[in-house]
Amino acid sequence: MPAYTSRLAAACGLALATSFAALAQSTEPAVFVVTYPNAAQGKLSSLTVNPDGTLNLVGVWDTSDTGPQAISLSPGGRYVALSHGTANNIEEKVDIFRVNPDATMTFVLTRLVPDSPLDLIWVREHLLAVTQTKLSGDNTVGLYEFDPAVPSLTEMARHITGRFCTSLAVHPHDRYLFANDSSANAIYTIEIFPDGASALRGSLPTGGIYPLGLGATNDGTKIYAGGGISSGGTAVHGYAVSAFDGSLSPLPGSPWQSPGASPKLAVASDDDRYLFIGHGTDATLRTMRVESDGRLVATGYSFDVGLQGTLGKVAVMETLLFITDNSTAIDGKSGVYSFTIQNDGSLMMNGPDLFSTGSSTPNSVAVWNPRRRMVLAVSDVVMGTNAGFRVTGAPPGAQFGLVYSLRGPGRVRPNGWGVAIDLAHPQQAGPIRRADGSGQAAFTLPVPIRSVPFVWFQAVRPDMKSNVVVRPLSF
């Protein structure tokens, strides 16, 4: 065990019981769901998660319009963003709600964006990406800065992303945004700089296969997509993500054949050992094992939601997996299924059946895990100068350590810790730090002269960790 591990664990150990009441995010694990796009009043539901994986409905809130399309939770768990779509061909609404400590919701703002925002995703705590999906002409992704103090949502940049962009994925190290084009069949890479500026870095053709439901692995090395009805209606394809420039290259053996019909989304398990594939035609969720080189192997484990098209969206929270059933057709029920992911990739249902969301057509889903509440931001890293670091979302007054790697992402679980560090060969950077009464800490550290192109950072303590941030090491 690295020497820093025992020092950090000892320094942080007394802070585990710190109160979380002052934080503006749910103090319990939570699931957030919006209704399926239709003409009815849009609904946003929140549910808390019990230790046994069962769910409790907290409440249901009206959105600003009909037809919610997508939902995303900010990295620090403070804000839920959701988009609407009613095909008026001009503009649609994006709503932002604040998440309260008891998992209730408070409306913050509505902002009009170009039609139609079929997907949106938080890139960072105050940076939101939203698609402009059109049936003709260039499709785009807009990047918006969110200022909760005003409150306001201000467009910062817009990038052309093909002819039919419906799916976004954020690289877990906060440097890249991926967008699909299921008309020309390609995946676009957008680089996000520390100051929030952005640049389109190109696209990779997917060989005639639709790139639907993009899903990045948690270590940031791979991204997968469902092929929908293209390529025989069973294709799942994957790409290696370069740690140096975010470029994509096909994984060996890609595409693979799923046992289900019309793969439409891909979600990785927390440890990246399994990929969960949702399907449209047969409404099944299938488990595929991820080999060391990224190849996928069907495990034979699946769950059938029922009628064609009724499997909504899928989300993973550590060892828990959630699936929405968006229709009461035939069986008269809809809601959220909760499963525990077993070591072999099979799924054990929590509770006797699905859980009600208090709305008739639950579809898009986002999850919040308090064990990952810290958010790390890092300035440019220039050799021979001081780099700036900011941690938010820690327990008030809690101690934490900053670790770094010169080798990239990995997975290290030190003895006695409840969380794994997501870096290869991590080292401690500077002394143990303590968050202030609002759960924040800002500090600087000197940058040594090193002949490496990148450095990876993560804030950790025994019961939680932050996102991973990668920065170029420049002169």
The CATH architecture of the largest domain is: 7 Propeller
Sequence stretches where pLDDT stays below 50 over 5 or more residues: 1-23
The CATH C-level name of the largest domain is: Mainly Beta
Q: Which geometry do the CA atoms define?
A: globular
Overall pLDDT score: 91
Number of helices: 1
Q: What is the helix fraction of residues, given as a range? A: under 10%
**What is the terminal-to-terminal distance?**
33 Å
Provide the gyration radius in Å.
21 Å
Structural notes for this entry:
The chain has 475 residues and is mostly beta strands. It has two domains: 3-18 and 373-474, Sandwich (Immunoglobulin-like), CATH 2.60.40.1930; 30-372, Methylamine Dehydrogenase, Chain H. The protein is built from one helix and 40 strands. Strands 31, 33, 36, 37, 39 and 40 form a six-stranded mixed sheet that branches. Strands 16, 17, 18, 19 and 20 form a five-stranded antiparallel sheet that branches. The longest helix has 10 residues, at 3-12. It starts with a helix and ends with a strand.
Give a quick rundown of the structure.
2% of the residues lie in helices and 52% in strands.
Q: Which labels suit this protein?
A:
mainly beta; Immunoglobulin-like; five-stranded antiparallel beta sheet; Methylamine Dehydrogenase, Chain H; 2 domains; 475 residues
